[in-house]
Amino acid sequence: MTPQRIVLVAGVDEAGRGPLAGPVVAAAVILDPARQVRGLRDSKVLSPERREELAVRIRERAIAWATGSADVAEIDRLNILHATMLAMRRAVEALGVVPEEALVDGNRCPALACRTRAIVKGDRDVKAISAASILAKTARDALLVELDRAYPQYGFAQHKGYGTPEHLAALQRHGPCPLHRRSFAPVAQAELDL
Fold this sequence. Notes:
Blueprint: E1 9-15, E2 24-30, H1 48-61, E3 64-70, H2 72-78, H3 80-93, E4 101-105, E5 115-119, H4 122-125, H5 127-150, H6 156-159, H7 165-174, H8 185-193
Parallel strand pairs: 1-4, 4-5
Antiparallel strand pairs: 1-2, 2-3
Helix pairs in contact: 1-5, 2-3
């Protein structure tokens, strides 16, 4: 009996399209059917502690995983949609294994060297995309906690760059820092108000 060939399918998702600050981070994950990770869900419905636990398991058990990002300058130059596609492409290209197909959360796909398929609510319905969602979110959150040390006045460790009332108040008080996306209206307005 010949062993069954594993079809290499990468799940791809991003974290950080909506925030006013920081990069957009994408992840690509090829899960190993022989080493399942139980409890995979859309990262947004998991507690931070649960996301961290699952991220460790995903990295240990996946055939391949990688993250990629687009920085603030790229977001401002390209726009957030194109920067997201760039981050996704970088994540897939960093896998070290070329997938046969990439399943991408949402309704758009980046240009990749393999077949691609967009799946709306893929982070909820497709385990490989859920895994990518978890890795992208935990990687971006860790980065924002680290960046908070350089810019503590904004509270990045708490709100991760999202436009919370606390973040908007800090923007009004201090103006934007180099981590802020100047192409986003609240940041542009805060710069004008200085």
